[in-house]
Structures
1.
Amino acid sequence: MAQNIIDVRNLSKSFDISSKEPGLKGTIKHFFRRQTKSLKVIKDLSFEIKEGEIVGFLGANGAGKTTILKMLCGLIYPSEGSILVSGYLPFRRKENFLKNITLIMGQKQQLIWDLPPIESFYLNASIYDLDKFEAKKRIKKLSEMLEIDEELFIPVRKLSLGQRMKSELLAALIHEPNILFLDEPTLGLDINAQRNLRKFLQKYNKETNSTICLTSHYMKDITSLCKRVICVHEGRISYDGKLDLLLKKLSPVKEILIVCRSEEDVIKLENSGFSVKNKNKNEITINVENNSITSSLKTILNNFDIEDLFINEPPIDEIIGRVLIKKDYDI
Amino acid sequence: MNLRKYLKVYKKFLHTSLASELEYKTNILFDLITAILSLIGSIFLLSIFFQNDGYIGGWNFEQALIIQGIYTILNGITNTWFNPNLTEIVKHIREGTLDFVLLKPIDSQFYISLKKINPSGFLEIILGFCLLLYCIKINQINLNLIFLTLCLTTIICSICILYSLWFFISTTTIWFVKTWNATEVLRSFLYIGRFPLNSFSLSLRIFFSVFIPIAFITTIPSEVFLGLSQLWKILLEVVIALIFLFTSRKFWLYALKFYSSASS
């Protein structure tokens, strides 16, 4: 059984935030007498993450996802509570700990802007104490996995966003870290680039058994990569568990659109106890509970003359969106 | 600290920043022209000050040229290393890219202080040394090992004091976010270092020696050049340099505890 690689207990973080009233008067007042207040952005979080797991952090803007990631990788000191990552206290930033982790941020870049990415890779390799031969081997392996080749020799400023992100990934993974912290890695990428990146992360996780903590506003990133999600709402965990369970919990029914050969069958279906959402001539849409999908389909196929049938999953964005707003605070 | 690793990384820093700068050839050309014109302008200005009265603060023009030479070397070092790196700290903190530096298994102060170089500053360093060689000739200074060791020690100490001051100010960005103006003020003060400390009034002398030891960093090496400096002054500069380096280091490590990173 996989061991816990991240262990968080009663974690809290407060920031001093200054606020300013609008207008010139507010500006002058703000300049001479700044009013600051302490804001608790992370409140008493506890969770564990096992080695090899891919965990998605979900939450609205400002919910505290990025702050959690930054505390996990040791960039921000926690105000209260304890964090252990791979047996280390992250904020001490010990060399062996830093060699084990990486942080990738979709909106920030570490590549040298005026030079081709390959120069940044070799610079990182020297920082991680890799010799030239080993660095070359890893660059070759990762560039094959990421499907980049010629781009390695073109100045970063001339690369497309997708190519740049792939290069950023390569630069961040050259030391083969065990734990990856990804903060919105697909931000701004087109659909194909997003898909390629997800494919790469899946492959990387499978081949290296690395642990991945991910935040993203693209639901497809979460659904295709994460089996487990941690939902954060106003600094607290509102759900921690399997994504499937969350979806079932939030959307216990599926829609089935049935196209019948005759309007008679539509009427028969309407009167046979199904929950009807709407009907139109020889088409009828019913809501069926997830746990009775198979039996309901059997009944329909055996007893009615069906021309076609569609099972519609409720839009996942809509369901997850409900988690992010206050009314669904306690799931 | 693994010295071999740090040397290897520094070699890479040199390589990447030179390659980056060489991407913009015209910019380098203009920087080189500026360095030459700036030195000519400074010497011209100095000659105007010395035109009527042959002495300022007990220094004649030929002696004052030594200060100009040391100032030019220091300014060259400022333009080669301090300016491209230490002004970048403000940007790193404002934009949150310091995250990448802090997560590298390397000393963060080493990384942010030495990652970039501006090659056009080298010309100023060379010009400064040429001016000093000329001053050695016209002031008929005897070169010997003790003289060279003392000169080198005081110049290194001056570099350390200047670096520490600049680094200290840049570090405050962690709390104040934007301190570009403060580093500009420091650069303006550095101009004062072109003139002998004795040429200022007593109150200014105390200010530029104790509070902002700018005059210290050019005057003492110049005095060493002319054989005018007393040993206690040299030792004092060494002690000040060590205190400044140590304090700026401790201050950086302390400040990092308050780093909150930029929001995403």
Note: Chain A touches chain B through 36 residues (CB under 8 Å).
2.
Amino acid sequence: MSETVIKCESVYKIFGENAKKMLEESNGNVDAKSFQEKGCIVGVNNASFEVAKGEMLVVMGLSGSGKSTLLRCISRLTDATGGKIFIEGQDLLELNNKELIELRRNKMGMVFQSFALLPHKTVVENIAFPLQIKGTNTEESISRAMEMVKLVGLDGRENYFPRELSGGQQQRVGIARSLAVEPDIWFLDEPFSALDPLIRREMQDEFLRLQEKLQKTIMFITHDFDEALKLADRIAIMKDGIIEQLDTPANIVLNPATEYVRKFTEEVPREKVLIIEDVMDASSKNDLGDLKVSKDEIIENVAEKILTQEKLVGVVDSNNNIVGSIKPSKIIDTVFGGRKNGS
Amino acid sequence: MEYLKKYPKLFQWLFLLIVFFALCFAIDVPETYKFIRGQAEFVKDPNQSVYFFLGKEVRYYAFDVFWRLPPLLGWLPIWINDSLFFLMNEWMPMEFWNEDTQEFKTRPILLQISRNLTAFMTFLIELIREILLGGLETIVAFTSWDFIDAYPWLELPGLPWTIVAAGAAILSYKLSGKGLALFAGLTMIYISIFGQWKPSMQTLSFILVAAPLSFIFGLGLGIAAYKSKRVEKALYPILLVMQTMPQYAVLVPALVLFGVGDHAAVIITMVVAVPPMILLTILGLRAIPPEVIEAGKMSGCTNWQLMLKVLIPTARRDILIGVNQVIMVCFSMAVISAFIGAKGLGFNLLLALNQLNIGLALEAGLCISLIAILLDKMSLAWANKQTDYFGNLTFFQRNKNVIFFAASFVIGIILAYVGTFIFKGSFNYLFEIPHNKGISTADFWNKGVDWIFDTFFVYIKAFNTWLIQDVLQPMRALYLRMPAVATLVLAVGAGYLIGGIRSALVVAALTLFIALSPWWDRALVTLYMATFGVVISCLIGFTVGTLCFQNKKSAAFMLGVCDIFQTFPSFVYLIPVMMLFGITDTSVLIAVIVYATIPATRYTIEGLRSVPVGLHEAATMSGVNKFQRLTKIEFPLAFPHMMLGLNQTIVFALFMVIIGAFIGTEDLGQYILKALSDKNGAGIGLTLGICVAFIGLIFDNLIRTWVGKRKKHLGID
């Protein structure tokens, strides 16, 4: 297990007067309804999780589920009402203002749904902004910003103002800005939600490419379940401030923990999400046919090959050792089974 | 009954009007009241009923109270005077070290503060003034008069006008480009060769102190109010009153606190210019999307960096409007503060108007307006300036502006030196063209005015007579005929119908204040003039705005015209109307109409513009023609914004009516003007100002409440 970068222990965020007092009185047993009657709104309710170095945790939930609030607690844009948050072992809530600023200047980057670019600065100035805030001199910050401009593919537009760019281009600036200081932790708050579907897909691919290269620790917020499946190492599904389930995409699809989560998974094309390893039978390794498939293949890619077989199909790891087997009928089961009414 | 249910509001309004008129007819003018002073107000006969209560004389008003409320607030001006006097001369005496006499002296603390403040302001103004015009006060401030006596050559020589002109042009070029540079150069040359150099530079030095200080204070207080709810709550009522307070009215208290001269003018200008700056700063900061603030925080901004590099630049648009307002107010005040002894163009303008030398007034007015426009454009260009990081510039390219300025500096000095040989014994025109020694077109304009008068006298006179006798006087009589109680009922009723109990109470309080002051009748006269101006302004403004809106180019052009007209100091408007109509109420009203038409037009265009394009298309697809689209879609949606325009129109009209007192109207403004020369005028001036402000605030409250509700109803922000 690699080292933990972000660690949350029973984080609460409750809006309203006397929130702190009410939380103490409730002994960690927060009921959103009874709180609402007393004029408090529960944003985040008892969130505990860890994010490892280089891991991408996608927090998924519908609007009002508290996902953005959770992110703002971890970036300390708002102060959590209760619980503890550790960033690389540092207690975030104990930091004074100066230390917090240091942390943000060097460790954190954030991308916003509405891009949040500074309207009076050009593309390159926007990207250089966090560097200049840190005190980097003009020449160095601009040349570094130009590298970022190239990284996100905006060369030639560095002197444009945000108002002169399309939504996708603006978000590229937002991404470049958040990466300019080379942060270890990268927060993305619904970065692609304001974009139209084609651009969104293009940006997702671009984002995966970047992450491949940079290997940041990421918290990614989205309301789009497909996006979550596509990007995530692990997904946290939130509802009414509570994390309903936190697991890998495959496990969420295969074993939804609650009714609420299951509703999301119903429409998901499993063959596109699951890999062979998720559905194979690790116990039986005998009586195999000729065909061997890698355990990391996505089902969709090998389904046709497997379905033409009559015998068990062997599953191998990267070293070509057999780690399990899969029945052709299991493929049909996976793709069509487990859904209500077969729809 | 059906109708009553369908349009209940309409019937409520009708009912209110019926009550109002019934009261008007029912309450007769009491016999003891008589018209006096050119029929401007009623005065109670001294033979009123008097009786004694506990040995004290009590005046008995009884029934008359319905007609006019007793001036119960008559003590207020006197009280203000006394308190001011007490604060200045007796409150908290302290020992202060006196440089001149080298001993401690006991002085009230406020007096000391005021003296220090004025000394500081005087120093700032003198410093800039002496750079532009020459002098030795600044050097004296750092040394002493003895020092100057010992070294008589020590004197700031003042810049030759050629250098200032070149400097202004180069700065404009750096900020904006050739167009503005040309404008700046021509303006300076015009000022110089028309012999307005000295007063212009005096005015400029006044502005260069007043405008930046107002900007800084306004921005600072705006930020403070944005950060702290408590500060905002404390500031808000003051801001509201100051927004509608006529600039005249603050002159007198300033006179008492800070004496006479440029320094008092600067302080009073700040008092007037800071409130709109504060309001616009708050407005701009509030409108920043929260994510931008978060982005700033996540970039690791300290609080200062967040404010200076994220918040203020993002709120730039509104803050710039604030700067524009500050500059506008500063130039307005540059003229008005001539009443309390500020030097410069304003003083010349007032003098010329007083002597009815329209030509001279026109030249001075044009100078002020040109400088105002120039500064406005320069400030705008400065805020929008961009940096080029990638141009591989040579040393010369990077510093060419400095080099050019240095060159023109040297050339200017050489020219001025050469000038001493050319113009031996007379004035050195290459150094500074003295006042009234330049070209003057005053005679031309004066002859023109005479010609207009000779040629059109009959018509102008006929128009004048008709307007005054058949329109204005009956209107004024009608307004004065309104019983106080009826007016109160009307105002409070309107407040209740528009905004419920809260509005009704606010309006009642404001109206009562005016009704209980000794100047109710004057307030009615002010109201009548303002109403007349506002009605006509709105008619013109809405029509012109609607017509211009039909075409994108003409709309943009009209907004530009509004911008420029708005930059003119309010006093300048009096010049052309006096040219045509002489010293009559007609002149004032026409000035009011011209001035108040600006916001009416602007808001109409802006309102119509803000109608979403989607709705246009939806309407077109429903098959409406242009006229239907205007009446069914655009007007209803633009109406709330247009009503805000009405609000501004009322404020502008009130300002101009009060300034019109300079020509000789018989409203509240006349008394404010009188208070200027009154030893105890501070209280009177301030109370009168508050009365005018309250008239504005009554309408402000009603309109804003209505607009707020309407916008909510229409679902537009």
Note: The interface with chain A takes residues 289, 291-292, 294-295, 297-302, 305, 309-310, 313-314, 316, 386-387, 389-390 of chain B (CB under 8 Å).
